[in-house]
Amino acid sequence: MLNSQVRMQPTLFDPPKAAESLDEVILYALGEFQSRGHRLADRELALDRLRHAIDRACEKLCVRPFSDDAIASLLKEAGAAVVEIPDYFAKRPFRVTVPSALASDALTVYHRINAKHS
Q1: How confident is the model at residue 14 (pLDDT cuts 50, 70, 90)?
Q2: CATH number for the segment(s) 21-117
């Protein structure tokens, strides 16, 4: 067998390969937040409330954790309304409102990824 055909086993220090796209990581996190019994749709939440769900999603899906600004921009791209507030109001100065259609899509992505990873 040629060296180019040999697959190397990952070492302890190799970074894990990202399994999902960044959009799916955000949707997974929103779905995970809802699966814990929290109401998400059409409700304004501080980014701090969603941050732990996003961190858990990053860990499960082997993605590096995002900065608050990156999370805010990814949420905007996904269709959530994100409002920046002054820094002296909160540690993470963003308020997020997720429309019900996006919340529904997030639950679908959450269940699909969990079925795939089980």
Answers
A1: low
A2: 1.10.10.10
